[in-house]
Design goal:
By secondary structure, the protein is of the alpha/beta class. The protein is built from seven helices and 13 strands. The chain has a seven-stranded mixed β-sheet, with no helix packed on it. It is globular and about 45 Å long.
């Protein structure tokens, strides 16, 4: 009888846990993704754009956090990274940063300079039922290809092994994880698809784009660095029973919805526009 009581108690705890988990992931939330800021010591324009972007981000009261998806500094130099961190530290909401190939290509130990400024080159956290994980795909030695070394893969698996199997995962990288960009891309994607991965976000291409990773969408967003025409932007993601992606212009505080897709592995994305 005592054994039966313990079993019932455990079952009740499991049901309550699942119910709370389901309630969490039904909530709508919004966050911003900023990528490819390319700060340069010899050219203050990108710094000015990031400064304006931080101001624009702080003007919004419905953003829960900000993700910075790499290529923070054009040459990966410490002064530019420090300037970027100084500006990002004035955000009113938490932010999480990973390096890109420009942040690591001149470092002998790949992430040493980035780590000395931002403390670490990867992150993981849970927000409203979703598990967010960002990791380094950059590679040193002036190589424009991406790579994820064995230590980083072990770290990824260690983080993901801690969460419930049904918990939805959002991964953030700098490079799109495709063969022409990242060494052993299939192995990396397979690592993520072992879990309940719902989207893989990134930058690097300096434009909006959508990939398909065996049914999981890969979403790349525009560079913050102004183009020759003066155009720049960052993305605002809205998660509910679907994912909506807006491109926001930090100079005008205007936003355009360019992507809508259900949170499902079976249904294709709907591209509203690609500004």
């Amino acid at each position: 009888m005592k054994r039966l009581g313990i079993i019932i108690l455990l079952w009740a705890e499991i049901v309550c846990s699942v119910s709370a988990f389901a309630q969490n992931i039904s909530q709508t939330f919004r966050f911003a993704l900023v990528t490819d800021t390319h700060l340069k010591q010899i050219d203050p324009r990108n710094e000015a754009t990031l400064r304006q972007t931080v101001k624009d981000l702080n003007s919004q009261n419905n953003l829960d956090f900000v993700i910075v998806a790499g290529d923070v500094a054009d040459k990966g130099d410490r002064p530019s990274l420090l300037k970027a961190k100084q500006l990002l530290d004035s955000l009113k909401m938490p932010y999480y940063a990973i390096p890109g190939n420009h942040d690591t290509r001149y470092c002998r130990t790949t992430t040493s300079t980035f780590d000395s400024v931002f403390v670490q080159h990867h992150f993981s956290f849970t927000h409203k039922g979703y598990f967010f994980i960002g990791f380094n795909t950059g590679q040193g030695n002036s190589n424009n290809r991406g790579s994820v070394n064995s230590q980083e893969l072990n770290w990824i698996d260690k983080q993901l092994s801690k969460i419930p199997s049904q918990q939805p995962v959002v991964a953030i990288t700098h490079f799109p994880i495709v063969t022409i960009q990242v060494d052993d891309s299939a192995q990396i994607v397979n690592h993520l698809l072992k879990y309940n991965t719902k989207a893989i976000l990134g930058g690097h291409y300096h434009r909006n784009a959508v990939f398909d990773y065996n049914g999981v969408p890969g979403i790349l967003t525009r560079t913050l660095q102004p183009s020759l025409a003066g155009k720049s932007g960052y993305s605002v993601f809205e998660f509910s029973d679907q994912i909506k992606v807006y491109e926001r212009n930090p100079a005008t505080s205007s936003a355009v919805l360019w992507l809508t897709l259900p949170i499902s592995k079976e249904t294709k994305a709907t591209i509203e526009s690609n500004p």
